[in-house]
Specification:
Layout lengths: L1 H21 L22 E6 L7 H15 L3 E6 L24 H11 L2 E7 L7 H8 L12 E7 L9 H12 L5 E8 L12 H12 L2
Parallel strand pairs: 1-2, 1-3, 3-4, 4-5
This protein binds flavin mononucleotide.
Length: about 220
């Protein structure tokens, strides 16, 4: 009996910690971020967030394919390379939300664009089995704005040198952890661009290129 009670208390504490760490009420939590049921049909507004500092590189090529497919299907697409923007690390002052444009760096402006989009594409090369620091910094800045990113459809575009899917796992889990802390947002698809080291070498991986285009076309 004592053991059962102990187990119950331990599990309750675990779930409390998980929810608190997300900043979300347990009743509002996604059961799973992987839910390929689309939120919206018809024309959508799409925001592609590219985070590689290598211009014209592998992830950017895949982002452009996604964009091409989506535009051909008459969706509205905006693509941003977040390296072009001033995105500060999460700091103590960001525990308080502020929508005053004078306080804000570009992170808040980009988060407002995310809030206005139906579909958000997160793109990153694998950096030491995780995502780019630029992308992680932007994601951290969503703290206190999670409720603004409600019911979004997410895609991930990820590239890596290693020629196996497992190389992408850490990056995928990082993105999933983020979506898990949003409200009714879901992961619709992943473009897995593994086996591509040099800039442009992703073009030798027609499956990933085609997949990016098809996801865009059928968004
Ligand atoms: C800082 C850094 C860390 C990297 N870490 C990994 C890694 O852990 N695993 C891997 O397979 N490739 C790694 N790579 C290679 C890139 O993921 C790969 O070249 C990718 O295609 C780059 O995409 P991009 O052209 O869009 O920048 C790393 C590259 C850099 C610059």
């Amino acid at each position: 009996m004592k053991t059962k009670l102990g187990l119950f208390v331990l599990m309750a504490a675990f779930f409390a910690v998980v929810c608190i760490s997300c900043g979300k009420e347990s009743s509002e939590k996604n059961t799973s971020p992987v839910n390929t049921e689309k939120v919206k049909s018809g024309p959508k507004s799409i925001l592609i967030l590219s985070s590689s500092p290598r211009r014209g590189g592998n992830s950017e090529i895949l982002c452009n394919e996604f964009k091409k497919g989506a535009e051909e299907a008459n969706h509205t697409v905006e693509m941003i390379n977040i390296n072009d923007h001033d995105i500060q690390f999460f700091e103590n002052k960001y525990y308080e939300r502020s929508d005053n444009p004078e306080d804000a760096d570009d992170a808040i402006r980009i988060i407002h664009k995310m809030a206005a989009a139906d579909v958000i594409v997160l793109s990153s090369p694998v950096y030491f089995y995780s995502m780019t620091g630029q992308m992680k910094t932007l994601i951290d800045r969503v703290f206190k704005y999670e409720k603004d990113l409600k019911s979004k459809e997410f895609y991930y575009i990820i590239t890596a040198t290693d020629n196996n899917e497992e190389a992408l796992e850490g990056t995928i889990q990082g993105f999933r952890g983020f979506i898990h802390c949003l409200y009714d947002s879901r992961e619709i698809g992943i473009v897995r661009g593994f086996g591509a080291r040099d800039s442009g070498s992703i073009l030798k991986k027609p499956t990933a290129v085609q997949e990016a285009y098809e996801f865009g076309k059928n968004v």
